[in-house]
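User: Here's a structure from my thesis project, written as structure tokens. My advisor, Dr. K., wants to see whether a designed sequence matches the one we expressed. Can you design one independently, without my sequence as a hint?
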């Protein structure tokens, strides 16, 4: 057995030596390749590391540039927005202040000019009776139609009328005077109207309004109390403006149950010369006292009543490039708290 082993060992030794030699050579080759590869890798590490670091720095630089550009864009946008906002705000405030000043100026003109035109009719009645030694109320103002038409035109009122104050002691005399001169007053009005011409709206509305108003139940109508305002005007001996009255929207034929709708629409239609729909916006009664003399010891003997349509006073006040503003007015009425007037929009 040992001989066989020796024989086998002898027979295998050349091959084994060769294999061992080959193995060692392969191992040496791989070792040399590994060392060469390691040498090569060692020679590449500095450049690759530098390239990697450079890539990271470039990326960071790009991020910083983007952030800087973004910050600059935000800052520029914020500055532009702030400048634009402040500019538009200043422009709006300037425009609003100008519009408000214009409206207030127009409102002051209403009090000074428009109401003064109504007062001219009351002054004419006072002068007429004083110069002719006429006792109120037994007189009819000469050329009343012409005087009233001028006062109505200058004041832009939609209605104007003059009423004497009748006391119990002169009621009978007044009723007799009114009956005796009724046709004279009507004839004077007809002559004046025939010279001036009838409004184009007159032929359209007359039959309809007459027939419609016959069916109105005036007991259901609720209007402003004139008595308290007239008493206040007499007590103060000054012009008194009533509250802001309105009625449901409609035209002169509308059946709203409130006669004021038809009445106001008729006034507006006569003024415009065509059918006008009343939109429910406010009107105000103005009361101007009429005195028996011009002296300090004067007494009120009558009243001139004018109806003004507020929105007509503020039309065409603002320039066309202004879209319009909302106007809210307040006014005290007698001893009541201020009444808020509905907004008048798009005042142009």
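Assistant: Designed independently from the structure alone:
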């Amino acid at each position: 057995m040992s001989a066989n082993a020796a024989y086998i060992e002898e027979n295998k030794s050349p091959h084994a030596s060769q294999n061992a030699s080959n193995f060692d050579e392969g191992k040496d080759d791989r070792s040399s390749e590994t060392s060469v590869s390691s040498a090569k890798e060692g020679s590449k590490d500095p450049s690759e590391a530098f390239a990697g670091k450079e890539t990271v720095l470039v990326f960071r630089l790009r991020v910083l540039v983007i952030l800087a550009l973004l910050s600059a864009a935000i800052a520029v946008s914020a500055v532009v927005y702030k400048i634009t906002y402040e500019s538009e705000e200043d422009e709006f405030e300037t425009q609003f202040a100008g519009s408000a000043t214009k409206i207030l100026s127009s409102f002051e003109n209403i009090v000074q000019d428009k109401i003064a035109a109504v007062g001219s009719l009351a002054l004419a009645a006072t002068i007429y009776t004083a110069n002719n030694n006429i006792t109120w109320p037994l007189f009819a103002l000469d050329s009343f139609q012409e005087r009233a038409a001028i006062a109505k035109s200058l004041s832009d009122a939609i209605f104007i009328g003059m009423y004497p104050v009748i006391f119990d002691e002169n009621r009978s005399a007044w009723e007799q005077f009114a009956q005796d001169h009724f046709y004279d007053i009507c004839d004077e009005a007809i002559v004046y109207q025939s010279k001036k011409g009838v409004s184009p709206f007159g032929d359209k509305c007359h039959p309809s309004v007459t027939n419609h108003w016959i069916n109105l139940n005036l007991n259901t109508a609720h209007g402003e109390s004139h008595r308290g305002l007239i008493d206040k005007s007499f007590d103060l001996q000054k012009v008194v403006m009533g509250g802001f009255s309105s009625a449901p929207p409609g035209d002169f034929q509308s059946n709203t149950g409130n006669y004021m709708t038809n009445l106001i629409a008729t006034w507006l239609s006569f003024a415009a010369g065509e059918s006008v729909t009343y939109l429910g916006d406010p009107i105000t009664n103005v009361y101007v006292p009429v005195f028996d003399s011009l002296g300090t010891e004067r007494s009120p003997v009558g009243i001139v009543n004018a109806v003004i349509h507020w929105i007509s006073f503020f039309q065409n006040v603002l320039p066309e490039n202004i879209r319009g503003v909302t106007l809210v007015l307040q006014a005290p009425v007698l001893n009541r708290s201020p009444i808020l007037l509905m907004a008048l929009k798009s005042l142009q």
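When you compare it with your expressed construct, this may help: The longest strand covers residues 300-309.
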